[in-house]
């Protein structure tokens, strides 16, 4: 035995525990370093801004992409990056979290919660101060959850005292965000409205602004004064007759606007999903209250919100207009969405489905092209939720439990002086945005019959209230303000935490240790949901063609926990670790395969990309792909052009015809 080994064998129990902790952290870092060195250095473009992120490690790449997706990061000041020069500061403001301004009704709580008592006693001991990774007290408190505060009284909204014109010159609303409907083509009369256009200058001809969902890159620019600036020409704010509905969104999104930005509900038209509204009349009829439920076809504009499968309250909007000359115009705006089979076969879209008899055509679709590249073939969202829920459920089996974690052999020195108390097996941390990613937590909760606690660190003191606006009866029944689940018989508890906490191992350790959760849970598992890093991504090729498309359409993307989750870390070196982080291919944007099915099986005359449109090369690639999708649609409709036969052989033609929505 070497002298170094002899010295180690004589170490105290405390030193041994400290060295084990440090060793685990070093293993994590070395593993990442080895991966980077062994991987050829090739460009890794961000799917949103196309910036090369090959020099970043995995966690930094995830942070970069997630920031682009939601335009929200975890710092209060504006962020300057290499791509910042391409984005107007007046259009996109990147902040850590949105100000916690609102209050929401909540059932009465106990006068003093046990969690508050624990938080007051969470002072660093002299033993803890010896740890090399110990943070200073002010930094330590950033990770400590405090008592959840719920306000029962309704939010009181007062009008502004005055409306000051903006000091900054804003751009006009771009054509991509304006929907145009002909009133009478013979006289060139038209009506226009906008979608997700709140950071631009007021328009003289637009008085209806649609918001697809409550994510910052879509509502950016909105404020309490925003509506007043577009409705009032004076400061007679007490005159209720001057108010009018100009913001159109789902009920959930509307409530969030009021709670978060104090937008007066008198400016908001709440739209129920799967309900058709008449919002504009081309005749002398006056449309009261911003619109009403109607299934008529008299001249005017109608809108039907359809669930977008993105975040709570998100919708795609089906616009239908009937002109004075009898012409009909149909536009589908997708905002951000995640395609599934139920969406393609939705009752409001069924008549446009190519599998229906005498299908009609939608004139334009504004498509969320976030992942419009054949490299992004990640599994279905429902499959990922089901798989991770089954994993935790199956961990009740000792064999699988030991395979994943190994036997629990480490005990904290402080445990010897505390009364024995059975700990829960897991604290499960699910990374989330201000809104978004909740489906993952709900799926696990249903399978394990466990509660969901909402972390209030990082300025998320209103996250609990936000979840209460989702109108989800199950979620309401499992939300708890007890972060350790005392009295709950489930072997696990789920925490919804900021994405940063599950972004790096040390961040998760800080959260777990500084809240003293080790006293109540044996292990901590962090889940980082993101779609773009799925390991089965295909290599991007310039010559993407019909045979490759056919293969993608024919085969569903597989996902299982033994192949895609448990293998993410080295079993030999990390068996003894108590805490782990796993990246899940869970995205709230459509994969390339899902987009292909959407465009092929719904009959669109024109497809307009809305994401990745800043670069000419990117636009060209997307247009080439759209042409392939449209060719396949013509094959299935038996409406091929003579020139189409030059690009497709008989065998491939037969394979495309055999693909149905059952293959989705």
UniProtKB/TrEMBL annotation:
<dbReference type="Pfam" id="PF07522">
    <property type="entry name" value="DRMBL"/>
</dbReference>
<keyword id="KW-0227">DNA damage</keyword>
<dbReference type="GO" id="GO:0008270">
    <property type="term" value="F:zinc ion binding"/>
</dbReference>
<keyword id="KW-0862">Zinc</keyword>
<feature type="region of interest" description="Disordered">
    <location>
        <begin position="103"/>
        <end position="138"/>
    </location>
</feature>
<dbReference type="GO" id="GO:0006303">
    <property type="term" value="P:double-strand break repair via nonhomologous end joining"/>
</dbReference>
<dbReference type="GO" id="GO:0005634">
    <property type="term" value="C:nucleus"/>
</dbReference>
<feature type="compositionally biased region" description="Basic and acidic residues">
    <location>
        <begin position="103"/>
        <end position="123"/>
    </location>
</feature>
<comment type="similarity">
    <text>Belongs to the DNA repair metallo-beta-lactamase (DRMBL) family.</text>
</comment>
<dbReference type="GO" id="GO:0036297">
    <property type="term" value="P:interstrand cross-link repair"/>
</dbReference>
<protein>
    <recommendedName>
        <fullName>UBZ4-type domain-containing protein</fullName>
    </recommendedName>
</protein>
<feature type="domain" description="UBZ4-type">
    <location>
        <begin position="43"/>
        <end position="73"/>
    </location>
</feature>
<dbReference type="GO" id="GO:0003684">
    <property type="term" value="F:damaged DNA binding"/>
</dbReference>
<dbReference type="GO" id="GO:0035312">
    <property type="term" value="F:5'-3' DNA exonuclease activity"/>
</dbReference>
<dbReference type="InterPro" id="IPR006642">
    <property type="entry name" value="Rad18_UBZ4"/>
</dbReference>
<keyword id="KW-0479">Metal-binding</keyword>
<dbReference type="InterPro" id="IPR011084">
    <property type="entry name" value="DRMBL"/>
</dbReference>
<keyword id="KW-0863">Zinc-finger</keyword>
<keyword id="KW-0539">Nucleus</keyword>
<keyword id="KW-0234">DNA repair</keyword>
<dbReference type="InterPro" id="IPR036866">
    <property type="entry name" value="RibonucZ/Hydroxyglut_hydro"/>
</dbReference>
